[in-house]
Amino acid sequence: MAAPHLSHVYPLGSRVTEAGHLELGGCDVMALAREFGTPAYIVVEDDVRERARAFVGAYAARCEDFEVHFASKAFPCTAVLRILCEEGLACDVASGGELAIALKAGFDPARIHLHGNAKSAAELAEAVAAGVGHIVVDNHTDIDHLDRLVPDGATQRVQLRVAPGISPDTHPSISTGGPNTKFGFGLQSAPAAIERLDASDRLVLEGLHLHIGSQIYDVESFRTALEAMAGLASHGMVNLGGGLGVAYVNSEHPPTIEEYVAAKVDAVRDVMGPGVRILDEPGRALVANSTVTLYTVQSMKRNVDLYVAVDGGMSDNLRPMLYGARYEAQVASRFGGGTYCHLVGKHCESGDLIVRDAELADPRVGDVVVTPATGAYGFAMSNTYNGVPRAPVVIVKDGDARLAVRRETYEDLVARDVEHPLGHSPRAWSTAEGGPRGPV
Questions:
Q1: How does DSSP assign 93-135, residue by residue?
Q2: Using one digit for the tens of pLDDT, what is the confidence trace for 35-81?
């Protein structure tokens, strides 16, 4: 019997074996579930590497001066960042924590950029001390802090984030470049910020940054954004952010990496002229389809509709609950369909619904179920709702599987607790003393 057709949303190189089992990176997922338990994130290393090479190759074929950064917020896992570092990518971070992860993964600080609309003075100090390549200035407070933090006689390279007033066709929560956004300087306020940076003896403005949103299919949106910014001095460099959409279900067909890069490079040349250095920050498009999540079915019931409940849910994939994001699902050892159901999680909310109207092949308690395309913002947004320990990350390649992040334990859940002797009431700090609240 012919193996079932596998949706293109699965990691590159995936297949269904003669036994009917999903195979990722040469590893049978049923064996992975037995060894590492469920839920678990399974990352196909070769998929990550191939997409990184595709981005770099597409830019190298079209321009001489460029740099591709991984938007680490998509999958802030040290082992994943290390793979992308090995592939020659740079890295963008949006917090002190992401900076620490990037440094641990081996990125050269000079090839790290710090983002954020609410950077603390401490985070900016950490970035300056680490020697990051650029700090992306988002507001005047960033400039105030940096003017104090950069030592006398030293300089810090910066980019200026501009909101071009463009809202692409994507979910409102991940549209970031419109006229009324929390990110960056609007077109009316950007000139004053540019003038202020140009006058600074500590900050060197090297270019403009824009990021209009994520999960974008219409690549002409990037040209429209650049055209809106055409009146601003570019300083010879433009950071185009990321934004390339990915396929989460079989019916979705986003632009290819090559089409996306060609659209951006052509737009820069047409709008800004030749010789402009181009930076790009893909995140989702590098890692989303590299990864699947494995679950085990714990219970089934019919209350009008059939509910198939698994051992994870909104603690390991919050996107369906935040954005109404759609995913596919299959029984990992029995691909096919025939049974319509709702694939739901174990958490105490009716909204804990992983896949609405899933079609599974005769699902049963104990089955391992797989949802593909969970590499972006699954691990990143994972949480311990209902005291559920966070899932491990397993990287597979050439038939070998290695544990990159272990599963949390119950001990981990209480590791940060501060115990006080019985009958002892800790002192309540007043706000006047710098504490978080007044007396209780």
A1: ESSHHHHHHHHHHT--GGGEEE--SS--HHHHHHHHHHT-SEE
A2: 999 999 999 999 999 999 999 999 999 999 999 999 999 999 999 99
**Pair 202, 147: CB distance under 8 Å:** yes
What one-letter code names the amino acid at 199? A
Length reported for the chain: 440
For residues 187 and 51, what is the distance between their CA atoms, to the nearest angstrom? 34
Residue 50 is classified by DSSP as H
Identity at 79, one-letter amino acid code:
A
Cα angle 317, 318, 320 (rounded to 5 degrees) comes to 95
> Which residues are CB-neighbours of 177 under 8 A, at least 6 positions away?
163, 164, 165, 166, 167, 168, 183, 184, 210, 211, 212, 213, 225
Catalytic positions, written as ranges: 348
Domains and CATH numbers, the chain: 15-44+289-410 (2.40.37.10), 45-285 (3.20.20.10)
Prediction pTM value: 0.92
Strand pairing report for 156-163 and 134-137: parallel
Which one, of 275, 423, 269, 293, lies nearest residue 355 by Cα?
293
